């Protein structure tokens, strides 16, 4: 395995890969996936949605994703 393959990827790199895979499969990004947005923006988006609505975004503080819901 190359050194590059051993290094963990940044969330943005993973996002690009997973988004690209979704776009290639379906032609679009899922409605619930909002990519790189802040927690505040997620909260503002959810305030105008009905209870039960959710979104997934790239985490600001950890490697990975965050599920936000109302």
Topology record:
Layout: H1 3-6, H2 11-26, E1 33-35, H3 39-47, E2 54-58, E3 65-69
Parallel strand pairs: 1-2
Antiparallel strand pairs: 2-3
Radius of gyration: 14 Å
What pattern of helices and strands is seen along the backbone?
Answer: HHEHEE
Number of helices: 3
Please give the CATH class: Alpha Beta
Pick out the low-confidence regions. none
* Count of domain modules: 1
Indicate the overall shape. Answer: flat
Total DSSP E strands: 3
The CATH topology assignment is SHC Adaptor Protein
Q: Describe the biggest sheet?
A: 3 strands, mixed
The CATH superfamily bears the name: SH2 domain
Task: Give the second-level CATH assignment, the architecture.
Answer: 2-Layer Sandwich
- SSE-based structural type: alpha+beta
Protein name: SH2 domain-containing protein
Domain SH2: 32-70
Keywords: SH2 domain
InterPro entries: SH2, SH2_dom_sf
Walkthrough of the structure:
With 70 residues, the protein is α+β, with helices and mostly antiparallel strands. The protein has one domain (3-69): SH2 domain (SHC Adaptor Protein). It is built from 3 helices and 3 strands; from the N terminus they run ααβαββ. A 3-stranded mixed β-sheet has the order 1-2-3. Strand 2 and strand 3 form a beta hairpin. The longest helix has 16 residues, at 11-26. The chain is flat.
Structure summary:
By secondary structure, this protein is α+β, with helices and mostly antiparallel strands. Helix content is 41%, strand content 19%.
